[in-house]
Amino acid sequence: MSSERLDIRTSDDVVRVRQLTRTLALKAGLSLVDQTKVITAASELARNTLDYGGGGFVLAELIEGAGRHGVRLTFEDQGPGIQDVEVAMKDGFTSGKGMGLGLGGARRLSNEFFIHSKPGEGTKVTIARWK
Amino acid sequence: MDRIPILKFGNALLVTIQVDMHDRLATALEEDLTAKIVEYNAKGVLIDISALEIVDSFIGRMLDNIAAVSRILDADTVVVGMRPAVAITLVELGLSLTGVKTALNVERGMELIKARLRTTESEEDDVEQ
Questions:
Q1: Phi, psi values for residue B68, rounded to 5°
Q2: In chain B, what is the greatest distance between 2 CA atoms, to the nearest angstrom?
Q3: Most B-contacting residue of A12, A19, A36 (CB-CB within 10 A), to test interface
Q4: SS3 letters for chain B?
Q5: How many interchain CB pairs under 8 A, A with B?
Q6: Is residue A97 scored above 60 in pLDDT?
Q7: Taking the alpha carbons of A22, A26, A28, A32 in that order, is the dihedral positive or negative?
Q8: Please, what are the domains in chain A?
Q9: Strand B44-48 to B12-16 pairing
Q10: How many Cα neighbours within 13 Å face the side chain of B68?
Q11: pLDDT tens over chain B, length 129 residues
Q12: Nearest chain B residue (CA) to A35
């Protein structure tokens, strides 16, 4: 299955992440609403990687399982990490200029959501949306 | 640098967002709109987002900011043309855009602004009497 890695260094890269996600979502055959959800989630997470992780990259993959297709996105950064993931997942939590909807919102917009973060080492967030 | 065009339309300003918004473009739009509201003494701002495939929390915050600044400058902001899939996604994301008025299309948005202008004018008449 196809996969592509994209660096996230500037706000233009956030736009590129959205475009890449749209391409994969179309390939996976997601409905219009599901495309919109996964692109929106990708946009939130890419911005987190940029604003809080100090930049990083996304690995975007077309996945297949149990006879259906989907999109999986893994965002990784080597930023300061998250002190308390539980707290950071709550709506309204923000350590910066955002509205604090990024992580919780991205989780609600995805079928699968994994987060691993260590203070001082960075953050890795994986989401998947299935057809 | 790219700029989003702002059209004057009677007492209102009309903005059509057609490109994938990035940070600088959003900041420039906020500044340009604020200046035009004052320059034209505009009472309404119509923002057409029918071309937008997604509204994330960044764009949501921009719309909220524009509405808040416009309100302080005595102008109403109406966001028009949101796609159904975008509306569904916004709610799930947790963004309710509480400070922003919405209408299905530009025509209805214009009606909202005109209705508000009529109310304001009649209130002013009352004061004069």
A1: -65, -45
A2: 50
A3: A36
A4: CCCCCEEEECCEEEEECCCCCCHHHHHHHHHHHHHHHHHHCCCEEEEECCCCCCCCHHHHHHHHHHHHHHHHCCCEEEEECCCHHHHHHHHHHCCCCCCCEEECCHHHHHHHHHHHHHHHHHHHHHHHC
A5: 67
A6: no
A7: positive
A8: 3-130 (3.30.565.10)
A9: parallel
A10: 9
A11: 678 899 998 889 999 997 777 778 888 999 999 999 999 999 999 999 999 999 998 888 899 999 999 999 999 999 999 999 999 999 999 888 888 999 999 999 999 998 888 887 777 676 665
A12: B85
Q: How far apart are CA A69 and CA A64, in angstroms?
A: 4
How far is A122 from A52, CA to CA, in rounded Å? 10
The conformation of residue A94, written as its DSSP 8-state character, comes to -
Return all residues near A124 (Cβ < 8 A) that are at least 6 apart.
A74, A75, A76, A77, A114, A115, A116, A117
- Classify the phi-psi angles of B22: left when phi > 0, otherwise alpha if psi is within -120 to 50, otherwise beta: beta
Which residue matches tokens 């930023």? A79
Q: Which residues pair with A77 in a beta bridge?
A: A56, A123
Give the CATH class of B6-128.
alpha beta
Helices A11-27 and A32-51, axial angle in degrees (round to 10) = 150
**What is the distance in angstroms between the Cα of B62 and the nearest Cα belonging to chain A?**
11
Domain coordinates in residue numbering, chain B: 6-128
Helix axes B84-93, B57-72, angle to 10 degrees: 90
Residue whose token pair is 């059209």: B7
